[in-house]
Amino acid sequence: MKLTILGSGVTMPSLTRNAAGYYLKIGTNHVLIDCGSGTLRQLLKAKVKWQELDYIFISHRHPDHITDLMAIMHAIYVAGHFNNQRIKPLVLVGYKGFKQDYHYFRQATFPAGRESYSIKIMEIKQSAKQFSSWRVRATSVEHGGLEVNAYRFEHQGKSLVLGSDCDYNQNLVKICHQTDLAVLDCMMPIVKKLPGHMSPKECGQTAKEARVKKIVLTHINPKYDNINLKKQAKKYYQGPVVIAKDLMTIKI
């Protein structure tokens, strides 16, 4: 597996941190996890063929995680008029209520049913699903009462967890158990901790309890880029800690 961080920021705009988005090359498949505003452009910067995406996973409905979903779908549709039309299906996977949200967004932006390919929409919650040569587990995590999925991807004995936006919770600890890499919400430093998000303290505690091999701190408010979040996290977790940067790639 190879992970590219397309967006390591939050909902407030930044020239250095795009809204949430992650591209995962897993086996022969091209997978996008979350797509906040600007993700389509970030895919170009990362030299990813956005027309070839096989799966798009959405963690929750907040704009900084879902805004570019319709932009990507519309781009694929329009590109078909100028290039070879897409034939392979596109699978969209999300949280409880995602199907309803998708149809609402679709009707509000451009009519359904015009694609040259099939679109499969599914919801997974507290369950696992096999896709091709890899497996995904999903669990609900705490984010102010909103339906939010954390995802664990498993392939050839390796695992990756994308925790999405959440506060410290046992579901997150369980899904992170002994994972090779956990990408965790670290929106603010310890002294600025807000409900529904984690600081380096909670990220470190989660990684320590779950015996994670390596963590990446992401979803960082650019206001705090001058604060040593890595040093704060290392007080609670002795393993490797990486501060996410846009277009960073990590092999798992």
Report the C-alpha radius of gyration, rounded. Answer: 17 Å
The CATH architecture classification is 4-Layer Sandwich
Average pLDDT: 95
**Count of domain modules:** 1
CATH superfamily: Ribonuclease Z/Hydroxyacylglutathione hydrolase-like
Sequence of secondary-structure elements: EEEHEHHEHEEEEEHEHEHEE
- How would you write the strand order of the largest sheet? 6-5-4-3-2-1-14
Number of helices: 7
Quote the distance from N terminus to C terminus.
5 Å
The shape is globular
| Content of β-strand | 25-35%
How many DSSP-defined strands?
Answer: 14
Reported for the largest beta sheet, the result is: 7 strands, mixed
Helix/strand-derived class?
Answer: alpha/beta
List segments where confidence is low: pLDDT < 50 over at least 5 consecutive residues. none
Main CATH class? Alpha Beta
Helix content: 10-25%
CATH topology: Metallo-beta-lactamase, Chain A
How would you sum up this structure, described in words?
The structure is a single chain. The chain is of the alpha/beta class and 252 residues long. The chain has a single domain, classed as Metallo-beta-lactamase, Chain A (4-Layer Sandwich), CATH 3.60.15. The chain is built from 7 helices and 14 strands. The longest helix is centred in the N-terminal third of the chain and has 12 residues, at 68-79. The model has no long low-confidence stretch (mean pLDDT 95).
